[in-house]
Amino acid sequence: MAQLDVNTLIGAAIAARNLAYAPYSRFQVGAAVLSSSGRIFSGGNIENASYPLAMCAERVAIYSAYAAGECELQALAVVTPTSDVASPCGACRQVILELAPHARIILLNLTGAIRYTSPNELLPYGFGPAQLNDQ
């Protein structure tokens, strides 16, 4: 297990936010995940003129980690340009619950507000692989 350096993870999320492609909403979000091996994967939201094809920062970061073979994720930091911290969307909550079920979630904004939570707090009574095996 890697040691969680919250400031480094937050810095990676902020750097990813600066690279977000959000020409339509202008709502730039950054995310960074820490794998159990100590690697950090980050991503910014990526919009598209065909709006449903956009991808949230949280999923960009998580999918990048998985694509690199890093499937044990310890922490996820998400930074938004809001007056208070903002929670991930429903689609991201589902992905977080399944692909980072034990991760420490760090939500923050650009003014320093921060909130710690967990996948189960983000999506209580979530649907996942265990429910598929209940058939």
What's the helix and strand layout?
Elements: H1 6-18, E1 30-35, E2 40-44, H2 57-67, E3 73-80, H3 90-99, E4 104-109, E5 114-117, H4 119-122, H5 129-132
Parallel strand pairs: 3-4
Antiparallel strand pairs: 1-2, 1-3, 4-5
**Which class of secondary structure composition applies to the elements?**
alpha+beta
Which sheet architecture does the biggest sheet show? 5 strands, mixed
CATH topology: Cytidine Deaminase, domain 2
Can you write the helix and strand succession as a string? HEEHEHEEHH
**What share of residues is helical?**
25-40%
| Mean pLDDT metric | 95
- The Cα radius of gyration reads 14 Å
The overall strand count is 5
Fourth-level CATH superfamily:
Cytidine Deaminase, domain 2
State the low-pLDDT regions, or none.
none
Query: How many domains, in number, for the residues?
Result: 1
Indicate the CATH architecture: 3-Layer(aba) Sandwich
Number of H/I helices: 5
Percentage of residues in strands? 15-25%
Features:
135 residues, alpha+beta, Cytidine Deaminase, domain 2, 5-stranded mixed sheet, 5 helices, globular
Give a description of the structure.
This protein is an alpha+beta fold and 135 residues long. The chain has one domain (6-126): Cytidine Deaminase, domain 2, CATH 3.40.140.10. The protein is 31% helix and 21% strand. The protein is built from five helices and five strands, in the order αββαβαββαα. The protein has helices spanning 6-18, 57-67, 90-99, 119-122, 129-132, and strands at 30-35, 40-44, 73-80, 104-109, 114-117. A hairpin with a 4-residue loop joins strand 4 (104-109) and strand 5. The longest helix is centred in the N-terminal third of the chain and has 13 residues, at 6-18. The model has no long low-confidence stretch (mean pLDDT 95).
